[in-house]
Amino acid sequence: xxxxxxxxxxxxxEIYQEYQALVEKLLEGYLKEVGIxxxxxxxxxSSPLAKTHTSQAILQTVLAAEDFRLFKEMMxxxxxxxxxQAIRIIKERNGVLPDCLTDGSDVFxxxxxxxxxxxxxxxxxxxxxxxxxxxxxxxxx
Length: 141
Fold this sequence. Notes:
This protein is mostly helical.
């Protein structure tokens, strides 16, 4: 359903609301199962450790329930991954891609370029976060 266009569709909002309800239900069940109340979770969630790049990546699905922009980015990325997987499966089964999927152009190179663009952006942000963290540590010392 999700595409990389700037404008969000009404269906995105409906899916986002369903996603929020699902995450809330799963999170409540998990917290209850491990014996952590919502206050303790909020405290841990807002701790400096939860702000690290690694923690943010792990908590992305939870964070996306509170941030529509992040949710949409995550869904667009997942859509790209699913499309790539489908193309790979078709190519594995048939040996080549049908003309309707290539349309005279190199589908893989276009998709790979998108992936490389995303990867470069992720690496850039990761480097910035790392440098900021190193600067904070130096300042504390």
